[in-house]
Amino acid sequence: MERYVARANIDHYLDILKDRNLTAQRRSTTIALLIAELDKLSEDVEHLEFAETRVGMSRQEIAQATARRDTLSFGTSERDDAEKHLIHLENVHTMLDDFCRRLRHKIGSRPA
């Protein structure tokens, strides 16, 4: 049950982090909560597929945000906002990707 709750919380926090209007304070708090939930799964290698799926979804979101940003004119506030959002999505992606790397390393370093 705890695993299910952790996975549901991870998805919830990732959804919150997609909000363009998220304040810096709420973003920081949400990231801290996300990391705590990811850490709960880090003891169980069966969660690698779950995490890798979220990394793939994150890549798609980055591609969509990049395409959106590229439609906007340079020097406009809309493009600046889109660029900030893209950087934020890339940071979240890096965090998720690092989590997957740690899980893969844990799997590879366990005795057979």
Write the layout of secondary structure elements.
Blueprint: H1 2-17, H2 24-41, H3 48-70, H4 77-109
Mean pLDDT: 89
Q: How many strands, which pairing sense, and closed or not: the largest β-sheet?
A: none
Q: What is the tally of beta strands?
A: 0
Assembly level: single chain
- Measured by DSSP, the beta-strand proportion falls in under 5%
Shape descriptor reads elongated
Low-confidence stretches: none
Class by helix and strand content? Answer: mainly alpha
Radius of gyration: 16 Å
| SSE string | HHHH
Q: What share of the residues lie within helices? A: over 70%
* End-to-end Cα distance: 28 Å
Number of helices: 4
List keywords for this structure.
single chain, 112 residues, mainly alpha, elongated
Quick recap:
It contains four helices and no strands. By secondary structure, the protein is mostly helical.
Describe the structure.
The mean pLDDT is 89. The chain is elongated and about 55 Å long. Helix 1 (2-17) packs antiparallel against helix 2 (24-41) and helix 3 (48-70) runs antiparallel to helix 4 (77-109). The chain has 112 residues and is mainly α. The chain is built from four helices and no strands.
